[in-house]
Amino acid sequence: MRRAFSTVAIALVMIGLIGCPKNPANLSKPEVETLLKDQLTLKSVTLEPKPEGGGFTGTGQGSDGTEYKLDVKQDSKESKLTYSAESKNGEEIKSGFIKHN
After folding, report:
1. Can you tell me the distance from the alpha carbon of 66 to that of 58, in angstroms, rounded to the nearest whole number?
2. Which of 56, 57, 49, 55 is nearest to 74 (CA)?
3. What is the pTM of this model?
């Protein structure tokens, strides 16, 4: 009985881990580029790691041709990713964040 309970407990933990979303503070460059394309409805995104770490900077292009300067901050202490996109002419700013539960 004890062995069956342990097996079930391990299985439940594994299922919970598999279903758990990935911490946004640990997303890779390609994952962040995809995320920004989806969240900001951009057709292209090019990012480079920040020299000091903790995120990325780069550019993106909207479906209407608008060019954006992108800034991404990854905070591992808060399990959070914050992003902003400012149009190169300074007229439009989009921003948001994703926090790990």
Report:
1. 14
2. 55
3. 0.76
